[in-house]
Write a structure and sequence with these properties.
The chain is α/β, with parallel strands linked by helices. Helices cover 37% and strands 17% of the residues. Helix 5 crosses helix 6. The two termini are 25 Å apart.
Amino acid sequence: MTLEGTNTWLLAEPGAPRCVVVDPGPDDDGHLRALLSTAQADGHRVALVLLTHGHPDHAAGARRFAELAGVRVRALDPAHRLGDEGLADGAVVTVDGLELQVVGTPGHTADSLCFLLPADGGLLTGDTVLGRGSTVVAHPDGRLGDYLASLQRLSSLAADGTVRRVLPGHGPVLEDPVGALDGYLAHRRERLAQVADAVRAGARTPRAVVELVYADVDRALWPAAEMSVRAQLEYLGAL
């Protein structure tokens, strides 16, 4: 589900005294202390923690890490914040010359955000776009209509050159954002067609659809597939 694990991003301008940490990851004290030590070894104090969304593999360790570093946590969902200041689409976060623009991308979850680094065209995507494979639309919190709109928005940013590489929450960096996002949209269209065909063939439950559409997928991933199927059925008006 998490590929090689969750990518935590430490962001700073060259020579700047402070950095921003995006998605500290799971609540594992050894991991969090190693993360803080890495920032300090690079000559940075941590200024702030940002979250792409609240899933535990990205956010469960945020509060503890923020306490270790003595900083705040900013997120869209108030439940995951430490401090009063949140995040919203269009907000700009600046720390010692570093600029991140918040891009609202609901769909994987209702609180999913991306962070654009306009200086070099990097886009931190959390689970909205992965470095390999496709993501889960986590019904009922996630909604496929929102997710498709978010992908279209990111595709437009890639097409006009605003986004020049994708820095995902899992997997490797993607140097062809246009191709990656075109592939994501094509995959969703293909899956929607397959789900619609399964319903026409008589599948009446999400599980039945999964058994037809995801027959070639490792069964360990079927629970996640079922969440995505529920989102697709809702989108198609068949749930």
